[in-house]
Amino acid sequence: MLNALLKSMPPATCMNKRAARIFFLLSTVTWETSCGTRRQEDCAKQIKEEIHPGLPLKDAENALKLCGFKTSIDNEKKTLYGDKVVPGSVVSERTQVLITLDSERRVTTVSVTTGLIGP
């Protein structure tokens, strides 16, 4: 029955339906990608606002972990590192945080960098 209906339709109508399906699929993929990017950007902004000079190491580390960052501490260099990768369909977004500490293990500087990783 569907085949009979499709045969009775002009070829232009079938092409328009295919174009509409492709457009819908691309729109959906684009929307999903942009939503993931927005969350990542908000998280990076949150880190910049929450982690400020004078904050204890444990509080800074907890803020990074709440945002989904993997953390590591270099005691010799007095540095806290945070790394987060948000996978995308083709390109992933990576955010890295570098926090320097003073002798009392309190934050002195915060550096946030974001980049894209792709094939």
Short recap of the structure:
The protein is an alpha+beta fold and 119 residues long.
Explain what you see:
This protein is α+β, with helices and mostly antiparallel strands. It has one domain. It is 48% helix and 29% strand. The protein contains 3 helices and 4 strands; from the N terminus they run H-H-H-E-E-E-E. The protein has a 4-stranded antiparallel sheet, covered by helices on one side. A hairpin with a 5-residue loop joins strand 3 and strand 4. The longest helix is centred in the first third of the chain and has 40 residues. It starts with a helix and ends with a strand. The model has no long low-confidence stretch (mean pLDDT 80).
Number of strands: 4
Query: What's the tally of helices?
Result: 3
Radius of gyration based on Cα positions: 23 Å
The mean pLDDT is 80
What is the H/E string?
HHHEEEE
Shape: rod-shaped
